[in-house]
Amino acid sequence: xxxxxxxxxxxxxxxxxxxxxxxxxxxxxxxxxxxxxxxxxxxxxxxxxxxxxxxxxxxxxxxxxxxxxxxxxxxxxxxxxxxxxxxxxxxxxxxxxxxxxxxxxxxxxxxxxxxxxxxxxxxxxxxxxxxxxxxxxxxxxxxxxxxxxxxxxxxxxxxxxxxxxxxxxxxxxxxxxxxxxx
Length: 182
Hints:
Structural class: mainly alpha
Strand content: under 5%
Number of helices: 6
Number of domains: 1
Oligomer: single chain
Radius of gyration: 30 Å
Mean pLDDT: 84
Number of strands: 2
Low-confidence stretches: 1-29
């Protein structure tokens, strides 16, 4: 029964001469409008908020590296001390020092992972917020100028676009005039 309905529907379309209209250009409705693109990565990289976000993340990562390299140096010193004194220690004392060293090593590794994950999570949340601001600017441009479709300019999907259809600089200019609150 279902096959019969599908065949009947297709036959009606064919008889009405609609296949050309159905498959010709599904993206154009009514009058033809150009498609526009925005290079999101360029907007993120070159916007004031994006640069501030990158700078802040770099500062946090540098502080993170400095803090934990100091702690790793302390552990390396402790290791040298244990190795130097191991010949003077009893087997039990040496085993206890090694267990303590390994425990500290694991704790440091856990702290490093926890801190790194927190920095990444915080940066990702701020980046998501920035992308949301960019999306808002794009939507406002689309509504204001009656653009039918704006695509993200991605080299894997869009091989070439005429510069007059690239809205990246407009979006960047508008975004830079706004407070993003990041």
